Protein 1
Amino acid sequence: MFRAAVITVSDKGAQGQREDQSGPQVAALLTGAGYEIVYETIVPDDQSVIEQTLIHCADVRGIPLIVTTGGTGFAPRDVTPEATITVCDRLAPGIAEAMRLHSLRITPRAMLSRAQAGLRGQSLILNLPGSPKAAIENLEAVLPSLGHGLEILTGTTGDCAGRATGTVISVNISETKGQQKTPIPVGVLVENHGLAGDAHAGSGRQVSLLGQESVDKLRAALPDLAPGAFAENLVTEGLTLYTLPVGTRLKIGGSLCELTQIGKECHGHGCAIRQAVGDCVMPREGVFVQVLKGGEVRPGDEILVIDEPDGA
């Protein structure tokens, strides 16, 4: 299932003057439906702060479902709908209409909700009321359909069962070039830049990938090969990366990338691995991608071939 964020909008909650009840209940409902909650926070009823938080979740962390609770009424500081409209590329009015229709069967005051739903990139932003009871009722009304919408939004629907897929095995960075990279638990792929914190980010080869299958070709000679030994950012499994044509688009975790280069030249007289065993797979079978849409990436994330160039 998809990753999700839950943002509680409340002045008193942000100041620690009121216990947040809506946020945890919304997160529990989403978790029970199979979503992975990767971000939870409480922000004040400040439009600019709400907008910045929504943008961070969508653009930096690449979270597909972003749910807010609070700030949808008539009070002067109820500005969550305005913040949502401002940051969204497109609105999804049917979702908010369905929630209001469902709530009207419970209370006529449901018509006073100004909740919105909209799309920013490959993220769906959904406003819920601040009342725990109303938030759960509204979310339950639309939750069964959200998964299909997110599949369409992120490009993982239709014939995706027949598309090539792989898995991220390791995420690796180094502070300087020419060094082996070190595994990290989670990385952030930054749009048109690369893997945050890595020395190669911002270069012409933003992110490097190497298949575990390629690494295993040298495993007999070097049984202690560790992830990042070839200075690769991502170790993958299940895709023969070097057979994909340049221009292929890959959905990696919460990001979208495009393959820009296959193979590279070894530095000088060759890397330490080539000097040790007379061979190195990175120059032949490693690939490089540029980041079209940023997002988090971690071991276990799926890699999905979205499309290949015409004629490939």
Protein 2
Amino acid sequence: MSRRRASHLAVAALALAAALPALGAGDAARGKDAYETYCTSCHSPDMNRVGPAHRGVFGRKAGTAQGYQYSSALAASRLVWNDETLDRWLTNPEALVPGQKMGVQVPAAEDRRDIIEYLKTLSR
């Protein structure tokens, strides 16, 4: 392979690598809609309801929202809500924390990414 071709391939690989995180990022506006579809029957950004309030959830230790009575399983979980833990939680809460109380799953990966991006806006 010529040096020129190798250099073009290296530039293309770097451009692709730089674009990959953006491809995996969710959309907060779509996430707000998905949040309203999947979450608002039990949750609100600012009020504890059937589930805890979500304002400030991103980066927070699981089971610590003030004024909400969590399952002992979630309160003892040692999880911190970040992209990975929220994705796993929304995929299957019971698989992540056996004995927790949430009965909703978000099957589509895109919806989960979008909801997570929306939850991040509630932390700002």
Protein 3
Amino acid sequence: MSNIENPILKNIKIDPELDKALNKALEYLKNNKNPFGGYPKLVRDNIPKIILDNNPAGTTIKYRKLDDVEYKNALKNKLCEEVLEYTESDDFKELADILEVICALAKTHGETEITLGNARNYKAFTNGKFEDRIYLEEVVIGDKYENPKEKLQESED
């Protein structure tokens, strides 16, 4: 069972492979200087000014502007950071941070918040939303249990 202490997930059976990957990621985060705590990391545009305004005179900061590839990678890391913060805190305001990062990522794809919203609406129309709280536990087709990993391996051949 997962080392993740999250009351929302406590009654959900997690695939052992996913559980192993999540624990490996969490262990990495705990053992490395920053992927989410401390510096260097991507911050919102006003953070350097806020740091200087809220600390004693003589406080200095060092930052740089990222190139396109670094920026996209930093946004992906930031998305993981924000999702982790939300899952640990269950604080509604953390969702705003996640949404901000998602909108910035959309821009790296040459898209806008409007086209992102359109894609979201299209997926909601074709696949539905998550309002009905459907938690799929198993699919049996005829007498064969469907294993998504087997299907993935078949499609790669």
Protein 4
Amino acid sequence: MTDSERRPSEMAYPLRSVRVAKRESLKALGIDPYPYSFERTHEAGQLERRYAGLAAGVETEDRVRVAGRIKAMRNSGMFIDLHDASGKVQIFCHRDLLGSEAIGVVRLLDIGDLIGVEGLVRRTPRGELTINAPRLRFWQRHCALYRRNITAWRMSSCVTANAIST
């Protein structure tokens, strides 16, 4: 498609077309970019309070399920900052935990997407509360154009998604 054939919104918002293309890639992999629900067990703030005394470098056997919006990604998605209404928790997405197919899906995620994660709680050697993610569920693809009156997202305790796991 040439620039003259593009719709005005695609020309005004070039990043939107990239996000839409990633959404189509998710669909091609059989992942619903707008799934129905995901039941979480904790909010980020609850985890921070519960594990405030957890020493750096310690991993627990506690399995939790959290959901939220991606606010930052580092090291090609290996570390994701997931925010909900109560705070932030770091998600660790390593190929040894997820597998190579799921890591390919992690690379299709963008800042602003909503995801659900299930995994074990740990504190990194640097002291960051983290969830090791052997299961990641895609909740909502964020492709909206940013406007002043966009409806605020609400984080319910029951949100859905297709499983991306090994």
